[in-house]
Task: structure prediction
Amino acid sequence: MWSFTMGVVLRNLQKVVPLRRARLRKDVNTLRHILGIQKFDLGIICVDNQRIQQINNIYRKKNVPTDVLSFPFYEDIRPGKLPCPLNRDELNLGDIFLGVEFVMKQCQEESLDLHGALTVVTAHGICHLLGYRHETEEEWTEMLQRESYILNEFNRLTGSHLEPLMKKFNQDR
Result:
């Protein structure tokens, strides 16, 4: 079908946190490789608390900043199934907004590495783009298993020690 690989559009729209975009892009490409989604486009937009709170309020009616919001291109994809695009324009998974300022504050509180945490949060966002949810405990368990698998592979390939951020079931996430 299409033999060329697509890209990650990575935009940094915040100025609060210094960001190593090359490192994040490399990590995202590793995640795409693990999931076998290299042929799909992916948008990653890094924003501050004010912007992510705005988006969270508009789309989820939650007027608080958060770590990640995902906007899938494919609305009703089943978890674990890749979309079957009919043409080149549909080789898109969607967009992920990273609340970089929010993640940075979490990292400071728990003394975690910012870039590692951004990779974990991005993996979480990609899971959402691929149909995973966590509205019920069952969905949450399924998503946590998927995230754990992705991060274990990532750790194996990169020598990192990343863990999922979602430890226990929480309806508000």
Observations:
- The chain has one domain: 8-158.
- The chain is about 45% helix and 15% strand.
